[in-house]
Amino acid sequence: HWSRVKGRLRSTVGEDVYSSWFARMDLESVQDDSVHLSVPTRFLKSWIQAHYAERVLNAWQAEMPQVHRVDLTVRSAMRNVAPANKEAAAPAEARRTETSNNRHAPELRATATAPVSASHEALGGSPLDPRLTFASFVLGRANTLAHAAARQVAEGRRGDPVMFNPLYIHAGVGLGKTHLLQAVTWAGNSGPDRKVLYLTAEKFMYGFVAALKTQTALAFKEALRGIDVLVIDDMQFLQGKTTQAEFCHTLNALIDAGRQVVIAADRPPSDLESLDERVRSRLAGGLVVEMSSLGEELRLGILKSRVAAARAHHASFEVPEPVLDYLARTITHNGRDLEGAINRLLAHSKLNATPVTLEMAEREVRDLIRPQEPKRIKIEDIQRVVARQYNVSRSDLLSSRRTANVVRPRQVAMYLAKTLTLRSLPEIGRRFGGRDHTTVLHAVRKIEALVGKDVALQDEVETLKRQLQE
Ligand code: ADP
Ligand code: MG
Fold first, then answer.
1. What was the ipTM of the complex prediction?
2. pLDDT at 420 over 50
3. Separation CA 269–CA 78 (nearest Å)
């Protein structure tokens, strides 16, 4: 259960939040309706309790409904230090994986045992993924503008006039925000004379709060202001009045000093409800670019680049063109799922030593497939299905006969036509033997009223709807 609970937490709060706050949370015990968890520092404990208590409980309840209490305690220092040391030596790739659950360990340890270095640790920036560069970023209609702006920022030199500040990129989950921001950071830092700092909003908060606690806030602020390009990811997670006020100061100070700020969030500045109005308008005052959902061509491009990347280590791995087409056509608009699909195909073909086929792909990625567009229901279908259900003929429904055994089915059919299609009342009347729109309206109201009272009718209507929607 514990690993599934962690999985749930990770998917509700996102990878960055998860690794900042939960990666070092351990399960101590489960007893009847209560769960006992532990974290290495007091600060972490109070932070989680203040901000995430409910989500932790929800994650447990989703796995074990009987759980009604989650206790969080600080575990003894002895257990904190050992894993933290290992981390420093781990290769970059291993540090990214979820098995290494102490990605931020040195920083946590710093706050626990060596408070003075807290602000320095915070300024180390968030971990960067070596694969997220401009070279691996695939261009398409959805992201041309964002990409051009990001490139411009990355290629600027110290002292260049800043063209748009801040650069604010927003898009839904998995559409490449983090990729683009990290690409800016890699590219910017490869030049000699600029300091680009990539921080998730969570990390910014953490760094700042930690600095406050250890009275190094001033140093933290000063250090932040020495940055040439400040890159903040997942801005929507910037919470708390003090942090926001501090962020606002930093933003103003950097912009006034002609330094570049780049921000990504899952929504436009105007929708960051919890943010102070002044911050919002400052954010909106630069260049705001949206990346829209990945079109099919872009999805195909991303798939191909993922396959190429995988082939660097697994030369025999091949994904036939029809499989790529299939994936690009059917997988949701989310870059993460595309990556996930390729990983699964790779794992499957490696483990079973079999080539990738269309059948295999269909089986392996079934849960990533975008739900079918709701079926367009035709009025003729409604008439046919209703006629069959009530044992009358379709021409009866269209006729002017007014016997009870035809009137009710006809009204039901009109009601369904109104609720399941986008046709107007006059159009529906026309399709039912040239009736007036008021007749249709009367039928719709009649059935609406009856469905509320008559359980049998309600049942019939539901059954008909289900048949039509299948
Ligand atoms: P976001 O931060 O917007 O949620 P990410 O940047 O984490 O999304 O992207 C999710 C995945 O999709 C990553 O593996 C990323 O490399 C990939 N991806 C998204 N857009 C692109 C693109 N244009 N080119 C290449 N890979 C992309
Ligand atoms: Mg992201």
1. 0.99
2. yes
3. 44
